[in-house]
Amino acid sequence: MTKKFVIGHKNPDTDSVVSAIVFSKYLKNGSIPAIAGELNRETRFVLDFLKGKKPKILKKAPVNSQFYLVDHGGLEQSIPGINSEDILGVVDHHQMFGLTTVEPLFYRTEVLGSTSTLLAKMFKEKGWKIDKKSAGLLLSGIISDTLNFTSKTTTTEDKKIAKELVIISGINIKELAQKMFDAKSDISGMSIREIVLSDYKEYKHLGKKIGIGVFETVSTTPFKGKDEKILKILGDIKKESKADFVFFGLIDILKKETFFYLLSDKEDGICKKAFGVSGKDVIVLKGITSRKKQLVPYIFKSI
Amino acid sequence: MTKKFVIGHKNPDTDSVVSAIVFSKYLKNGSIPAIAGELNRETRFVLDFLKGKKPKILKKAPVNSQFYLVDHGGLEQSIPGINSEDILGVVDHHQMFGLTTVEPLFYRTEVLGSTSTLLAKMFKEKGWKIDKKSAGLLLSGIISDTLNFTSKTTTTEDKKIAKELVIISGINIKELAQKMFDAKSDISGMSIREIVLSDYKEYKHLGKKIGIGVFETVSTTPFKGKDEKILKILGDIKKESKADFVFFGLIDILKKETFFYLLSDKEDGICKKAFGVSGKDVIVLKGITSRKKQLVPYIFKSI
Q: Which CATH superfamily, name and number, covers B192-301?
């Protein structure tokens, strides 16, 4: 029998995980929430805190399975084995990744700070109540993706929906955000490679393969003196993944700036074109905290 | 100054025209409804009947313009000169055509009989009233695309929304459908070429260019003895458009069957694979009335 899964992108972040859980409830058709890899520390904290069940990990698509994709709309960032004819629906807030299908499907993406915001909207549109736990999960997704409403991707709709979710969930948003950021910033026991790959996405643009990893933190102190190591790891990743360009951005959430690591002259050239800033090894991009809105579009235009 | 347009696909049909008009009202941002070519007879009748204003014709994208696409979601079927970065939003009910964008946008498609149905839904979700004229226009879009609820693409949601639009518009649906079909079937003064091209769409699939024209009618009598002429015209279109395959389907709405014209052995081969039916020049496909649901997917799978 065909099983239906709701799943987010590879290297799952909080928004993609909570979206999978809540969209499966919305669908009311027995769809099973799943995740495309291990939870990061922030998401682990969120599920512990809200007593949410950890979804099943799927490393590849099982035989006879169909999928609802959340928080991504193309196959590049999906687990291996999903074909476009296996996709039943998409709920997302990213750009379009060239998905082609033979038959019509449900596809919805909007310019919002998180997929969680869109899901909350969809419940409202149906006139359905959001249960307390789901409200907490969606609120966490919004806080995570908008960096507690400080990211450039934040919209007035995100803020409005979050206020409503606060009322339903009874959560103290300041406290939750603080705890999430602490969990996110906790790198104890993590290798540099784990950090660089913890939120790494691969894109294809104009025939080029581009890898962009980011790590969001409330303190960059633990990274002092680690530049050389980070660049070495980036070089390894570039070789292994046969990427044309790889970048890593260490995002300081509080100072609102990004330490941007440039592996070689090739990456530096792109960076110069994209941001008008050039340098060796690592540069600081002031005011830049969003991969989606402030990094990807400019890097794409500079390829 | 940048102008914003709402526009449907080339060879506009009723659903694409009324969707452009009503979505521009929904947006409330000064967007101008436009059409990608001359109105067909059915749509002309609808606009006359409902005292709707004929939208501006755009044969190509003006300088400094941005677009909301309705009833199509890719650039293949858009007017020339629209680039993906000029697209502000999409409302559709077709398959995904591989749209790629650099930035997030509003994109919404659902498995419904018409784009008009989705637009009516969007008004309801916002809690906004649909005005009487818009209700009539959307009702016409639904009737047109679902062949008055007889096409395989018809969903229970189309029927439900149509009932609500009947109440708002005060329209007698049976009478409107009859008049629309009569207008649609009126071929007086039309050349065979005009008929074949009146609802012709081009697709790209697996590197092949496929043209599929359909003509819906309540009576195929005027086409008796015209097979040779139709095939000659199809041959001309294939040459001019450098298509790999071209098909023309004369759809008998009442008998629910399609006379399917096969230009050469190449088209016949596809048809045999797609429908298990083979023949010379023209064959009858029983029960087939929908290009989107019953022709395109099967033809794509047989390429």
A: DHHA2 domain (3.10.310.20)
CB-based burial of residue B265 (10 Å sphere; 0-12 exposed, 13-18 middle, 19+ buried)?
exposed
Tokens of A223: 């990274």
Same fold, B3-182 and B192-301: no
What is chain B's mean pLDDT, rounded?
Answer: 95
How close is the nearest chain A Cα to the Cα of B155, in Å?
A: 13
Domain borders along chain A are: 3-182, 192-301
> Residues of B with CB below 8 A from A118's CB?
none
Cβ contacts of A47 within 8 Å, gap of 6 or more: A17, A39, A53, A54
Give tens-digit pLDDT for A46-78: 999 999 999 999 999 999 999 999 999 989 899
ipTM: 0.88
The verdict on domain B3-182 having CATH code 3.65.10.10 is no
Q: Do A108 and B107 touch (CB under 8 A)?
A: yes
Residue A243 confidence (pLDDT):
96
CA distances from A285 to A275, A282, A289, A295, B36 (A): 8, 10, 9, 10, 44
In chain A, the residue whose alpha carbon lies closest to the alpha carbon of B204 is A100
Tens digits of residue pLDDT in A256-294: 999 999 999 999 999 999 999 888 899 999 999 999 889
Q: What is the pLDDT of residues B88-106, one digit of tens each?
A: 999 999 999 999 998 999 9
